[in-house]
Amino acid sequence: MNRLVRFTEPRSGLSARCVLLDDKAPQSAGFLWQLAQTRPSYDAIHAMWTGPELSCPLPASVLPEQFARTDIPLENATSFPQTGEIVLAYVKSGSIKGLPPGPFFDVGIFYGDGGRLFFPFGWLMANICAEIVPEDLAHAQSCIGEIRKNGACRLSIEPVD
Question: pTM, whole model, 2 decimals?
């Protein structure tokens, strides 16, 4: 049985169900599933460097302690996410100059073609850990387009029962 999480954002009306890729990225999918159990809400922005992405940066300081201590290996990793893919990026503490103290995570929702994980500090690989279910993709694309026009938002994640 597939596990699903839902990303929501009230101002744009975003509500996108995503199937977790437990078989391809078990630790990353598990991280996202466990995080969803806490029903968190975090600041998110349309990405500047990576193309069609809604980015939800998660420095260790904003995460519950048990998540901030998690080490995520590369699994089902890419530098070129495709439309509908959800990626979890993990950067070890101190490995990139300029990031906040502690490990750094980022959940990226890619909603169009041309995604690339290239930053001023170079290329990054992230784990594809979920995919937007096909019937929710067009709505998600429209809503994330609104977020892009309106600026930062508050993104929530929850498990789908």
Answer: 0.94
The CA dihedral of 2, 35, 8, 142, to the nearest 10 degrees, is: -70
User: Distance between CA 86 and CA 63 in Å, rounded?
Assistant: 19
The 10 Å Cβ neighbour count of residue 4 is 17
Give burial (CB, 10 Å; 0-12/13-18/19+) of 24.
middle
Q: Is 86 in contact with 131 (CB distance < 8 Å)?
A: yes
For residue 147, which of 79, 76, 52 has the smallest C-alpha distance? 52
The tokens for 157 are 């994640």
Question: Residue 67: which of 40, 31, 101 has the closest Cα?
Answer: 31
- Give the pLDDT confidence of 6-48 residue by residue, as tens digits: 999 999 999 999 999 999 999 999 999 999 999 999 999 999 8
Domains and CATH numbers, the chain: 4-160 (2.40.100.20)
